[in-house]
């Protein structure tokens, strides 16, 4: 959804990052503006998930070069919790289980923490219960999700819906969905995608990390970026994802110039 008078939410320039001395990201450049949906595609090992984790501030990765500007902040100066409070959200490829912590407690604490950061009123347990149940309707979630421990015993689809429920509650400026389609059957995929689409608006932006075209049938990107060996080697519109579905990734190696006129 490219809109007039949009503003830059994320500006990544020359980003390089390593883990245990091995360089994974080798110079990433990416600009994301409000109202936009960007898809990052590529084979396993191309650096897609590493890029998502570096944006979120994962401690295992060392940034060795480049810059990341998030809204008006130098993201590299912020610890992960401050990045989250500033409006950056990462939906995990493999959401972790937190036994003994009720989902409703976890969600209310996260929500109220962000509300405080924004100078807004916190919700008490009763107010939050009404609020979260409305949000759950977006994802066709049953009320008993709230009483269960966070992700404990959840199916793959339930875990992914719970991630998007967090996104709906927190209303981040930038959502990074790391292979949210992984492990979902087609019905669960449609529900999750519908939730994401209803949350997306002119004031926020989304980065989708995925291997496959099928997610992009339901969440249509404005830009598709292909990563290989730690770099974005090609950028195009939604048609690029369809071409990848047909031709695979091998043909890109010999044709690495970004598509003209596209925000790379």
TrEMBL record:
**Which InterPro entries is this protein grouped with?**
AAA+_ATPase, ABC_transporter-like_ATP-bd, ABC_transporter-like_CS, FeS-cluster_ATPase_SufC, P-loop_NTPase
Molecular function GO labels: ATP binding; ATP hydrolysis activity
Q: Which CDD domains match?
A: ABC_FeS_Assembly
Q: Which SMART domains match?
A: AAA (SM00382)
Regions that span the bilayer: none
Q: Does the keyword Cell membrane apply?
A: yes
Q: Which domain of life is it from?
A: Bacteria
List, for all copies, the residue spans of the domain called ABC transporter. 10-254
Q: Which UniProt keywords apply?
A: ATP-binding, Cell membrane, Membrane, Nucleotide-binding
Q: Which family does it belong to?
A: Belongs to the ABC transporter superfamily. Ycf16 family.
Q: What is this protein called?
A: Iron-regulated ABC transporter ATPase subunit SufC
Q: State the organism of origin.
A: Nitrosomonas oligotropha
């Amino acid at each position: 959804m490219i809109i007039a008078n949009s503003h830059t939410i994320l500006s990544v320039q020359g980003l390089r990052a390593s883990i245990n001395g091995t360089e994974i990201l080798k110079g990433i450049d990416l600009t994301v503006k409000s109202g936009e949906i960007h898809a990052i595609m590529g084979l396993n090992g191309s650096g897609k998930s590493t890029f998502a984790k570096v944006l979120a501030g994962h401690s295992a990765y060392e940034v060795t070069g480049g810059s990341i500007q998030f809204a008006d902040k130098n993201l590299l100066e912020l610890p992960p919790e401050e990045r989250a409070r500033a409006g950056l959200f990462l939906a995990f490829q493999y959401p972790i289980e937190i036994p003994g912590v009720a989902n409703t407690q976890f969600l209310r604490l996260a929500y109220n923490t962000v509300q405080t950061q924004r100078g807004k009123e916190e919700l008490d347990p009763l107010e939050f219960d009404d609020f979260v149940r409305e949000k759950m309707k977006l994802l066709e979630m049953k009320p008993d999700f709230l009483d269960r421990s966070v992700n404990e015993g959840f199916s793959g689809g339930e875990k992914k819906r719970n991630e998007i429920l967090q996104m709906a509650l927190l209303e981040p400026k930038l959502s990074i969905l790391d292979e949210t389609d992984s492990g979902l059957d087609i019905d669960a995929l449609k529900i999750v995608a519908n939730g994401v689409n209803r949350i997306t608006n002119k004031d926020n932006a989304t980065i989708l990390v995925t291997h496959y075209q099928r997610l992009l049938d339901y969440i249509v990107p404005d830009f598709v970026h292909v990563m290989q060996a730690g770099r974005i080697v090609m950028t195009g519109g939604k048609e690029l994802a369809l071409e990848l579905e047909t031709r695979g990734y091998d043909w890109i190696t010999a044709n690495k110039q970004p598509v003209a006129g596209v925000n790379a």
